[in-house]
Write the structure tokens for this entry.
Amino acid sequence: MPNIEIATILSNRTKQGMVELVVDNHKIQMNISKAREVFHMLGEAIEAAISDTIIYKFLKDKVKLDEIGAATMLIEFRELRQGSKDAVYKQ
């Protein structure tokens, strides 16, 4: 697991509050608007990951698909949920 730290900073240039995200010594500084956008994307990804787990278990336990079949159907579901293959497999 990566080491993740989140802190607030004050921009020396603009004197505005910012959010600093550090992942394994890689720092990213974001203005509040960008930090809110990341917050919402992370929340949506968490909910989608929970949904993926539930759907995969359902396909294996109730529909009786093998691991490959359940994973294949989960990919199909993701494409429906996200709108297209391009949304699932970003370049």
